[in-house]
Predict the structure of Endoribonuclease YbeY.
Amino acid sequence: MAIHYFEESVKSGLKDKRKLSAFLKALVARHLDVKTIDLNYIFCDDAYLLEKNRQFLNHDTLTDIITFDLSAADDELVSEIYISVERVAENAGKFKVSYNTELHRVIFHGVLHLCGFKDKSAKDKALMRDMEQQCLEAYFTEQ
């Protein structure tokens, strides 16, 4: 059971990775019955993520996160989660929250997708936002 954090020519500013990893593992365990967790977070800039978006999803737009589920079996969760720190910083300003809060919201967003939560319809989007908020509150009040 491993969660890794990589920085692709950027600094994410992510702190307390052990606490975050434990929280993410517990979050997955609440929603999925898996024996193996192998999550790789790759923090990058807009250009890097835009290229992934074009190459793999045929989208020519900037985004803050792309989540790839690479699981080969039902009892495992294997994923690469790409996060643009530039989008996170811009969105933090737009939503009037701290960079750290927005970074964690996006981190949780990726895992929630892997746990089956969607955000295409208005109803699904509202549930996703609620789940993100629950995660933020639980994570930042945990000691």
User: Anything to note?
Assistant: The longest helix spans residues 122-141. Strands lie at 2-7, 36-44, 65-69, 76-84. The domain at 2-141 is CATH 3.40.390.30 (Collagenase (Catalytic Domain)). Helices lie at 17-31, 46-57, 85-95, 99-114, 122-141.
